[in-house]
Amino acid sequence: MTHARSTPEQFAKARAAMVKTVADEVLWTNRYLGKTALDPRVAAAFAAVPREQFVSAELAEFAYENRPLPIGQGQTISQPYIVAVMTDLLHPEARHRVLEVGTGCGYQAAVLARLVAQVYTIETVGELAKDAAARLKRMGIDNVAVRHGDGRMGWPQHAPYDGIIVTAAAREVPPALIQQLAVGGRLAIPLGEPGGDQELVVIRKEADGTLDRRSVLPVAFVPLVKGG
Fold it and tell me: Which candidate in 6, 56, 78, 215 is catalytic?
């Protein structure tokens, strides 16, 4: 794309190219993921959300590159491939209620909103939470509730959740999130040291309360911090 303001048609073409790039990367990383393609519902939702609306006007032309981008306050919008994979790991269903820890600009929540009944999302940075809530409302997305708070504590008032997604890296899984995960539910979270080795992990809560944990692939996320 050029540095001139892109047209809706150019954005649509770039979005389609991004979807193809992500599909190719899923195929290339199948040894980590255990599958060669995204769930079709996830792929369709991912293809439908206009990523350019979640970054600044100055960065909109880069919105469909397969990489994270800064959104201010030291935070980023995650790489499209990672957004798609983490969404897919939740096995989202239309009846589900999902908790997101780390709203950021609201992009991940917008993808989830097309797949599940309700999304609850918590952001530690007040300005980002306010901006994300306004952006989602402006886009007509009405099944996402945004809260400014400490994501490590979850959102107990609406628990249990069929899925929990954490978009920042923690050294260990916050106990509150395990408590708020429904039986049969899945939690996707990057674990590891800030700026060091991290891995994307998915945890499923079994009927007897035990946790089935699987490491998926190496990742790099901003740290999960206290806030609210």
Answer: 78
pLDDT tens by residue, 68-86 = 998 988 888 999 999 999 9
Q: Tell the CATH topology of 67-219.
A: Rossmann fold (3.40.50)
> Is 78 designated active site?
yes
203 half-sphere exposure, CB direction, 13 A CA radius: 23
Closest by Cα among 3, 91, 100, 96 to 39: 91
Contact 22, 86 (CB under 8 A): no
What residue spans define the domains of the chain? 67-219
Kindly give the pairing relationship between strand 97-101 and strand 161-166. parallel
- pLDDT tens-digit readout, 105-150: 999 999 999 999 999 999 999 999 999 999 999 999 999 999 999 9
Hey, what amino acid is at 204? R
Contacts with 89 (C-beta within 8 Å, 6 or more apart), sequence order = 186, 188, 200, 202, 216
Sheet holding 161-166, edge to edge: 144-148, 118-123, 97-101, 161-166, 181-192, 198-205, 211-219
Closest CA to 111 of 37, 213, 38: 38
* Residues forming beta bridges with residue 148, ordered by sequence position: 123
